[in-house]
Amino acid sequence: RYCRLRNWNTLFVCGTDEYGTATETRALEEGLSPQELCDRYHALHADIYAWFRISFDHFGRTTTPQQTRIAQDIFQRLLAQGFLLQDTLEQLRCESCGRYLADRFVEGTCPFCGYAEARGDQCDKCGKLINAVELKNPQCKVCRGTPVVTPTQHLFLDLPKLEGRLEAWLERSWATGDWTANARHITRTWLRDGLKPRCITRDLTWGTPVPLDGFRDKVFYVWFDAPIGYLSITANYTDQWERWWKNPQQ
Q1: Rounded Cα–Cα distance for residues 111 and 109 (Å)
Q2: Reported pTM
Q3: Which of 24, 66, 196, 212 would bridge 232 by S-S if both were Cys, CB 3.0 to 4.6 A apart?
Q4: What number of other Cβ atoms are within 10 A of residue 65's Cβ?
């Protein structure tokens, strides 16, 4: 509102981040399809923001054709420029359900603090990040069966290849930008420990499909997919979306 009052050319967008295991898990709990669940909560969020008179230019969502198109295009560019690599992950698979268990579909005992209800991605008691196969006494959240460790191929963002360029950019940005002390500390910690390849695919059905032979039964990991939602929501508002997102002088 301040920017609008100053007559600055301003675009205010937001939306619901709808893919990923949290959605699948909640849909199972409520007896709905993931799309039905997302439709319900998108409308609920939109109504609440309207009630608060939060005046988005566009309140969108990530389950749109524009999201698929832009996310897959970014993926193809990363692939063409050699910023992706393939590797095998050990994942928990539930034979009763016939599926690999994404992080939030498995619970067990934290290997660090012994908390009995740790998730497959992190422990809510001690806060440590967890690889699901590290859990003790793992259980499938759907059928409560015991999953088995099984290898599966995935695609990774080759972050070490970008480390040098990122460090140079950060030094410039820290000198000229207004970073919080917390953001600086977290970023420095990542760089101090060295960047690691980061998986960008998941053995799920609810998500943006991976457009590559050998991986078409997988979707993009929501951490890769969701930030692109800001671009696709803008693209659903205007076909001039690239002028907003590819204009470093503004």
Answers
A1: 6
A2: 0.84
A3: 66
A4: 10
Per-residue pLDDT of the chain (250 residues; tens, 9 = 90+): 999 999 999 999 999 999 988 898 889 889 999 999 999 999 999 999 999 999 999 999 999 999 999 999 999 999 999 999 999 988 889 988 888 887 778 899 999 999 998 988 888 888 888 888 889 999 998 888 899 988 989 999 999 999 999 999 999 999 988 899 999 998 998 888 889 999 999 988 899 999 999 999 999 999 999 999 999 999 999 999 999 999 878 7
Q: Coil, strand or helix: which one is 66? A: helix
Instruction: Please write down the HEC assignment for all residues of 74-115.
Output: HHHHHHHCCCEEEEEEEEEEECCCCEECCHHHEEEECCCCCC
| Domain carrying residue 103 | 90-151
Please state the φ and ψ torsions of residue 115, each to the nearest 5 degrees: -60, 130
Amino acid at 32: L
Number of domains in the chain: 2
Q: How far is C-alpha 145 from the chain's CA centre?
A: 27
Q: Are residues 3 and 73 in the same domain?
A: yes
Pairing of strands 198-199, 201-202: unpaired
What ranges in the chain are assigned the alpha helix state H? 2-5, 21-30, 34-51, 65-80, 163-176, 181-193, 222-225, 229-237, 241-245
- What single-letter amino acid sits at 20? G
Q: Are residues 55 and 3 in the same domain?
A: yes
Q: Given the structure tokens 């360029």, which residue do they identify?
A: 165
β partners of residue 148: 93
Domain membership flag for residue 66: yes
Residue 119: half-sphere exposure toward Cβ, Cα within 13 Å = 15
